[in-house]
Structures are given as structure tokens and as C-alpha cells.
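Hi,

Apologies if this is the wrong queue. I'm a grad student, and the batch job for Cysteine synthase from Aquimarina hainanensis produced an output file that my downstream script rejects. I'm not sure whether the problem is my script or the file. Here is the sequence I used:
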Amino acid sequence: MSHHILELIGNTPLVKATSIIDNPDITLFLKLEGNNPGGSVKDRAAYNMIRSALDRGTIDQDAKLIEATSGNTGIALAMIAGIFGLSIELVMPENSTKERVQTMRAYGAKVTLTPADSGIEGARDYAEKKVAEEGFFMLNQFANEDNWKAHYTTTGPEIWRDTEKSITHFVSSMGTTGTIMGTSTFLKEQSSEVQIVGVQPTDESRIPGIRKWPKEYLPKIFNPDKVDQVIEVSQEEATNMTKRLAKEEGIFCGMSSGGAVTAALKLSKTIKKGVIVAIICDRGDRYLSSELFE
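Support response: The file is valid. Your script probably expects a header line. Output copied below for reference.
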């Protein structure tokens, strides 16, 4: 059977954790989003944002796309823009791992690096300035309804199907919040009893892919009513769990996934039984030049 590469986005494996959880009455499933062709959960949103904009006529082949990204969305957008023959400039902080920058460029994107001390907020400001002054078009993952709708139509239904409707808790790191918003919307429509748990970093922690946004940068797609509980994790906890996942479960992923699983284990200590699903949002190979696995 042959597929177009875009047909391989989604339907990622759901695997049962066997080592890191010791309560026999709680099942922890990990959804391996690194199995998407671009290597992360962001393939889903990137494809839906570009495909929907083309279908509506919002953009055409002459569009100059620009997007601020911390990494995974940029890689996904670079891959999909290349497939559709679109030009795209991706803006990210200069302290992003070189694997991310090289991967985006391999897919054909222009990459602009902004000062590290201004973070992703600085990258967003740069992109918005180019939109205002130079005629660029920004898909704007932070405010684009097609971001969360990708998860409403794919991620949520897959989890409901693959747990045979038995899921009790869904755990996701929160960055743009597209994954948790879309998945929450679908799962709550199936059963209001499913609990949605968001993951944020503690105040002093820096965990790529998980953010506690200043109010003025809070993603417009975020609706706090769709999250039942927020669990905070520290940088140290996320790092340690990421290493444990590789060594004990054979799951090689990034730190935001370690954060999500840390939160899932904290959650498991507060319930007697249940079926928890946590998102493993990418692969670990794009962090090898960082200090994560040292």
C-alpha cells in the first residue's frame, strides 16, 4: 500500500506505559506524536492551517508566509509549505537547537533567528512587524482556529477510538494550546466525565514547548473553561522524566513530553483508578545538541 506523505499525518500509536507507573488500577497510555512524518504533533495543526487557508483562498502560491515558532510548528510548516510549493520564513530565538534550524532549512524554509533574551515573544513581535510593514501573511498558530480544529477532527477521535471509549483523563503540555483545546472539545462531547489536565512550568522553569504566557501573549485560541485542572512541573522533573522514558520505556522524546508524563504521574497519585492518556509530542533526536541527554 502506498500513501502520499500527508496521508501519514495522524493515526499515531497509543502505547501502554509498563515501567514508570506502579498502580495496577491505573493504565497510562502515551500517544506517540513523534511518529508523524515531520516528527511532532504539530504536523496536524500545520497541515490543517495551510490546507484550510488554501481551500478558502486566503492564501495562494504567491503568498509570503511567516511564522514565529519555538521549533516543532516551524518544522511542520516548513515541510508542508514545501510540499505545496509555498515560500515561508520561520522566526525563532537564536538559542533554539541547531537540529531544528537545520531541519527547517532542509525542508526549504528561510530561518530568521531573533535575540535569545527576548524569547518566543520577541520572535512573535518580529513576525507581526513583517506582516504589518512588508505584506507577509502569518498563519498565527496562537490565534488560528484551524490549529485546535485539527485536534478536534483527528487527535480526539483517535484517542476515543483507541482507548475503546475508556479514557478518564487526558494530559497535555500547553504551548499554543491547540492540542489541548481541540482534544478537550471532542472528548467532552463524548463524555463530560473525561477530565482534561493541562501542564505548565513552575515559575522559574524553562521547558521547551510548555509555557506560562504573559497575559498580553496568551494564545487567543485558549479557553480556560476547557481545562479542568492545571498541574505545574519543574524543569528538573521534566528533564528527569524525559531520560526515564528513554531508558525505561524505550520512548525517545523531548522535554515537554517528559513534563506531560510527570504531570500524569502526579495525577495518578490523586486517583484510585482510571485510564490516563498523555501526549508524547515529539522525538528526542531534535534535542541532541542541547544539554537534555547529557
